[in-house]
C-alpha cells in the first residue's frame, strides 16, 4: 500500500513540474526504447509492471534545478503481464475461453430503464451459460480421449493394448481389466485437467488481478451519456474478485461432475441391462444419478444467479459456494469411481461410449444459446442504436459462435488424432478398423471444415478486390498531396497500397459475421447428419451417387487432416513460445487485445492485465499530482491509449482537471468503439471529451489499427489531428536525401506533430485554473523509490 506520508509532503518551491507518462501498446517496448536511454531507472513497481525514468530525471521533483522547457518523461511498461515467462505459452489452450469472455463485453449499448437492465442481465446470463458449456466441452473431450479411446476401446482390445505397454496392465483378464476399473483409472486424466485449470485461475488472480483501486469512491460523477455514470469509471469495474471466485468454483465443480457422469453412465447402463445385478448396485446407480442431477442443477443455479458487481469494489466472497461446490463434486466423483470399480465379472467393453449423445446435446445447447443471445442483442441495439456498432449489435453473438467453434475444433482435433494414432494404419469408425473411433459427430464436424474454408474464400476475395481498386484510385492522385514533388508511380502505388491494406480493418466485422453465420449453418448440418445417419460421412454416403460418395469421403479425410495439422501447429506454436522469448511476445500480442477485459463470463480465461495496469496508472496519476501539484500528460500508443482512457475514467474530478491525454495509433473508436459500443461507443467517448478538455488524438491513413475518435462535432474543439502525412517525404530531396519510410502504426514520435501537440496540451493545462493544490492532499500516492535496473526486456516491437 502507498505511504500516506509521501502524499502529505508539500511540493517543492517554484513552478509546478510537468510529467509525460508514456504507455506503450501491443507487442510491448522496453523502457530503453520508450525513454530513448540505454540505462533507465525504475521509479516504482516490480519486475512485472513498473514505471521508469531516465537517470537524470529520477528525482526531478525534488531538485530545485529540475529541467525547464520540457516535461519529465516516465514510461509505464506492462508487457510482461502478457508475455513474461514460458508459462504464458500454456495460455494458448485457453483461447476458446478468452473468446467467450469477449462476447460478454461486446454487448450493444443499453438505454437507462428497467427493460434494458433486464435485457443486459439476460445477455450476461446467456454468455455465462455458454461459457459453462465450453468448460464441459473441454473436459468431455478429455474424457473422450482418456476414458473412451484409451480405457474403453484400446485397453479392451488385446491387439491395441498389447502394442502399447502403458495400457498392458489394463488389458482384459487382469484385476484392472474390468471395464469399470479401467474407466476409474482413465478418469484421473480429465480430473487432473480440471484441477490444473482451477490452480491456474487461482494463481493468475493472485499474480495479476488482485490490485485494489484507489481508496474511496474513485469517480463520483464520472462522465457517461445522458448524465449517467460511465461503466469504466465505476469504482469496482477493475476489481471482480467475487464473480471470478464464484465462477471458478462452479466451473471446477462442473468439470468434476462431467468426469463423474462419463464414468457412471456406462456402469449404470450395464447394471440395468445385465441379469442378476444385486439390488445394492441397482440402488447405488439410482442414487448416483440423483446426486449427479442435483449437483448439475446446483452448478447451473450458481452460474445463473449472480453476475458482476461494478458499482463498488466487491471484496466479499461466497465462502459456502467456494468450499461446498468443488468439495462436494470431488467427493461425488470419488464415490462414483468406487461404484464403477465394484467387481462386475461379466462386463466387457464393446463399441464406443455414448459420446454422440453428450456432444450432440452440448452442440445443440450452444447453438440455442447463441440464437437467444442474438435475439437479446438485436433488441438492445434496436432500442438504443449506436452508430458504427459492429454487425449492427450482433458482434457479441458472432464472437460467442467463434468461441464455440474453436472449442469444437480443438476437442475434435485431439480426439481424431489420438484415435488415428491408436488404430495404426486403419481409419477408426470404418469397416475393418480395429477401433470404433471417436463419436460420429466429431467426424461430421471435421467433414464440414473444407466447405467452410471454401465458403470463406468468397468474402475474402471480395475484400481483396475492393482493396486493389481502392489502391488504384488512391495512387492516381497521391502525388498531389506533396506539392512540388515530381510524381513517382511506384512510390504512389506503395503508399496507396499501405492505405488500402490499413482500410481492410474496417471490413473485419462483416468477415467475422460471415465466419460465424456459415459456421452456425454448417454446424447445424453436421449435427443433423450425425443424428439422422448415425454413421461417419463416408459411410453415410455409401451407396449414393459416386460423386457424392467421393465428395463425402474427401471432405472427411481432408477435414481430419486439416484439424490434425491445426492441432499440431497449435502445439508447435505453444512449444516455441515456451522456449523463445521473441515468439512469446508474438503470443503476448494476442493476449494484449483479448485479455484487456475482466473475466466476467469464464474464470479459466487468461488473466485480465488491465486489472493490474489500470489501478497502477490511476495510483500513479493521483499520487503524483497530489504530491507535486504539477501538470501531467498521459501519452498512450495503440493499446496503451485504451489503458490511458480507462485510467482517466477512474480519476477523481479534481485530479482529472490537471491531466491531459495524448493518444496516437489509437483503436478507441475504430476497434473498441465498434466492437464494445456500451463502453467505448461514440456517446461514451464524447462524454469523456467533455469531461477531459485537454485531449488530442493523432492518426494516419496508413495505420491498420489506429483511427480518428471523432468527438469534436458534439463537444466543441475536435480531438483529432490527422490524417498525418505518411511518409513524411514523398521522394528524395536535400532535406530528405534518403527515402522516408512508411511508418503505419509505429513511431508516431518521429512526426513533428507529436511534440507540438504534447507541448500544446501542457501549455493549456498550465493556463487552466487548477484550484487549491492542497484540496487533494488526502489522496494517497506512492513514495518514489529509486533503484537502478538492467533494461527490463530485450528490444521488442513497439506497438
TrEMBL record:
| Disordered: region residues | 1-21, 766-799
Where do transmembrane segments lie in this chain? 88-105, 125-147, 183-200, 249-268, 280-303, 324-342, 357-377, 389-410, 444-465, 508-532
* Record flagged with keyword Lipid biosynthesis: no
> Which intervals carry biased composition (Basic and acidic residues)?
766-780
InterPro entries in UniProt: AB_hydrolase_fold
Q: Which organism is it from?
A: Streptomyces lavendulae subsp. lavendulae
Official protein name in the record: Uncharacterized protein
* Entry keywords, A to Z: Membrane, Transmembrane, Transmembrane helix
Q: Where is the composition biased (Pro residues)?
A: 1-18
Amino acid at each position: 500500500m502507498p505511504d500516506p506520508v509521501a502524499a502529505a509532503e508539500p511540493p517543492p518551491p517554484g513552478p509546478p513540474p510537468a510529467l509525460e507518462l508514456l504507455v506503450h501498446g501491443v507487442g510491448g517496448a522496453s523502457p530503453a526504447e520508450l525513454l530513448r536511454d540505454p540505462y533507465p531507472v525504475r521509479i516504482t513497481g516490480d519486475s512485472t509492471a513498473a514505471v521508469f525514468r531516465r537517470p537524470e530525471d529520477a528525482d526531478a521533483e525534488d531538485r530545485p534545478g529540475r529541467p525547464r522547457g520540457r516535461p519529465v518523461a516516465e514510461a509505464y511498461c506492462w508487457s510482461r503481464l502478457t508475455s513474461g515467462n514460458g508459462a504464458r505459452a500454456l495460455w494458448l489452450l485457453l483461447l476458446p475461453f478468452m473468446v467467450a469472455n469477449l462476447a460478454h463485453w461486446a454487448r450493444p449499448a443499453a438505454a437507462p430503464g428497467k427493460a434494458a437492465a433486464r435485457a443486459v442481465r439476460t445477455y450476461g446470463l446467456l454468455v455465462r451459460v455458454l461459457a459453462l458449456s465450453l468448460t464441459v466441452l473441454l473436459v468431455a473431450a478429455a474424457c473422450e480421449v482418456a476414458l473412451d479411446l484409451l480405457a474403453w476401446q484400446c485397453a479392451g482390445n488385446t491387439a491395441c493394448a498389447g502394442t502399447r505397454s502403458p495400457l498392458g496392465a489394463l488389458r482384459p483378464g487382469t484385476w484392472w481389466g474390468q471395464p469399470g476399473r479401467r474407466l476409474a483409472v482413465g478418469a484421473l486424466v480429465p480430473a487432473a485437467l480440471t484441477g490444473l485449470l482451477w490452480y491456474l485461475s487461482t494463481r493468475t488472480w493472485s499474480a495479476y488481478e488482485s490490485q485494489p483501486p484507489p481508496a474511496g469512491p474513485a469517480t463520483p460523477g464520472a462522465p457517461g451519456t445522458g448524465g449517467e455514470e460511465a461503466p469504466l469509471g465505476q469504482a469496482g469495474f477493475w476489481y471482480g474478485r467475487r464473480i471470478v471466485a464464484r465462477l471458478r468454483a462452479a466451473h471446477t465443480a462442473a468439470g468434476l461432475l462431467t468426469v463423474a457422469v462419463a464414468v457412471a453412465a456406462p456402469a449404470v447402463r450395464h447394471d440395468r441391462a445385465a441379469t442378476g445385478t444385486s439390488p445394492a448396485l441397482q440402488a447405488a446407480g439410482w442414487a448416483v444419478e440423483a446426486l449427479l442431477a442435483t449437483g448439475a442443477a446446483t452448478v447451473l443455479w450458481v452460474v445463473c444467479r449472480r453476475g458482476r458487481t461494478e458499482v463498488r469494489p466487491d471484496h466479499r466472497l461466497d465462502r459456502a459456494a467456494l468450499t461446498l461446490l468443488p468439495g462436494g463434486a470431488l467427493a461425488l466423483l470419488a464415490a462414483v469411481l468406487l461404484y464403477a470399480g465394484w467387481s462386475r465379472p461379466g462386463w466387457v467393453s464393446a463399441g464406443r461410449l455414448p459420446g454422440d449423445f453428450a456432444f450432440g446435446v452440448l452442440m445443440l445447447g450452444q447453438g440455442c444459446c447463441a440464437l437467444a443471445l442474438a435475439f437479446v442483442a438485436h433488441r438492445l441495439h434496436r432500442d438504443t442504436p449506436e452508430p458504427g456498432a459492429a454487425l449492427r449489435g450482433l458482434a457479441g453473438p458472432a464472437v460467442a459462435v467463434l468461441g464455440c467453434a474453436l472449442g469444437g475444433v480443438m476437442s475434435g482435433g485431439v480426439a481424431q488424432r489420438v484415435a488415428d494414432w491408436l488404430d495404426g494404419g486403419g481409419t477408426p469408425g470404418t469397416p475393418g478398423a480395429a477401433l470404433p473411433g471417436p463419436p460420429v459427430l466429431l467426424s461430421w464436424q471435421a467433414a464440414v471444415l473444407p466447405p467452410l474454408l471454401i465458403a470463406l474464400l468468397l468474402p475474402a476475395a471480395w475484400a481483396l478486390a475492393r482493396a486493389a481498386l481502392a489502391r488504384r484510385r488512391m495512387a492516381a492522385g497521391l502525388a498531389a498531396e506533396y506539392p512540388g514533388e515530381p510524381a513517382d508511380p511506384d512510390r504512389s502505388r506503395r503508399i496507396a497500397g499501405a492505405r488500402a491494406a490499413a482500410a481492410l480493418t474496417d471490413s473485419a466485422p462483416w468477415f467475422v459475421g460471415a465466419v460465424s453465420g456459415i459456421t452456425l449453418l454448417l454446424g447445424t448440418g453436421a449435427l443433423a447428419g450425425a443424428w439422422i445417419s448415425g454413421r461417419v460421412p463416408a459411410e453415410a454416403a455409401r451407396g449414393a451417387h459416386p460423386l457424392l460418395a467421393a465428395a463425402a469421403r474427401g471432405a472427411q479425410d481432408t477435414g481430419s487432416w486439416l484439424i490434425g495439422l491445426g492441432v499440431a501447429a497449435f502445439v508447435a506454436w505453444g512449444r516455441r513460445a515456451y522456449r523463445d522469448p521473441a515468439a512469446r511476445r508474438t503470443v503476448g500480442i494476442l493476449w494484449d487485445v483479448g485479455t484487456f477485459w475482466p473475466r466476467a463470463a469464464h474464470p479459466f480465461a487468461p488473466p485480465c492485465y488491465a486489472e493490474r495496469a489500470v489501478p497502477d496508472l490511476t495510483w500513479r496519476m493521483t499520487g503524483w499530482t497530489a504530491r507535486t501539484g504539477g501538470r501531467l500528460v498521459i501519452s498512450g500508443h495503440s493499446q496503451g491509449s485504451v489503458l490511458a482512457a480507462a485510467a482517466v475514467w477512474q480519476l477523481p474530478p479534481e485530479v482529472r482537471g490537471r491531466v491531459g491525454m495524448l493518444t496516437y495509433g489509437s483503436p478507441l473508436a475504430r476497434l473498441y468503439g465498434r466492437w464494445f459500443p456500451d463502453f467505448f461507443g461514440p456517446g461514451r467517448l464524447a462524454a469523456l471529451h467533455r469531461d477531459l478538455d485537454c485531449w488530442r488524438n493523432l492518426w494516419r491513413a496508413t495505420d491498420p489499427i489506429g483511427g480518428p475518435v471523432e468527438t469534436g462535432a458534439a463537444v466543441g474543439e475536435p480531438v483529432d489531428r490527422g490524417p498525418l502525412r505518411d511518409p513524411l517525404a514523398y521522394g528524395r530531396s536535400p532535406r530528405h536525401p534518403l527515402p522516408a519510410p512508411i511508418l503505419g502504426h509505429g513511431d508516431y514520435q518521429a512526426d513533428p506533430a507529436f511534440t507540438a501537440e504534447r507541448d500544446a496540451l501542457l501549455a493549456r493545462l498550465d493556463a487552466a485554473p487548477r484550484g487549491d493544490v492542497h484540496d487533494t492532499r488526502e489522496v494517497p500516492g506512492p513514495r518514489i523509490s529509486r533503484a537502478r535496473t538492467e533494461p527490463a526486456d530485450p528490444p521488442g516491437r513497439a506497438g
